[in-house]
Design goal:
Keywords: Membrane, Transmembrane, Transmembrane helix. The model has no long low-confidence stretch (mean pLDDT about 85). About 80% of the residues lie in helices and about 0% in strands. The chain is mainly α.
Length: about 120
């Protein structure tokens, strides 16, 4: 199981008690948001690196379009991956393990911190 699977399961279990019908959507959104923010941070880093190396790979507009398409792909991939059978398999695997105890506010702040880092990195370059 990957880190994203563990985070999905934790969010699913946390919101299952509060909002049972929307718990899968919230957990899928969180995993997609986290992956997208990591992708943005990586893209900003490489854009700055290529700019300092004087390499012209693609324009900023094309890069943003590509980023948007990849984010849409990530969301639909996660939607298909964590819907139905995969979530049931995760439930069985996680029932055998001890319960994860993460603070939900810290987990929600992780993508926001990553977005802040991406913003600072983009202004520093």
């Amino acid at each position: 199981m990957t880190t994203f699977d563990n985070l999905f399961y934790h969010f699913f279990q946390f919101y299952k008690a509060k909002k049972s019908k929307k718990s899968n959507e919230i957990a899928t959104f969180y995993v997609s948001f986290l992956q997208s923010s990591l992708l943005l941070l990586l893209g900003v880093f490489f854009a700055g690196f290529f700019r300092q190396m004087h390499v012209q790979t693609m324009s900023a507009t094309k890069a943003w379009v590509l980023f948007t398409l990849v984010v849409i792909f990530l969301y639909f991939k996660n939607w298909m991956y964590y819907g139905g059978r995969k979530r049931k398999v995760l439930n069985v695997k996680m029932l055998k393990n001890k319960k994860l105890e993460y603070n939900i506010w810290v987990l929600w702040s992780v993508p926001l911190v990553i977005l802040g880092l991406a913003f600072v990195l983009s202004k520093a370059i």
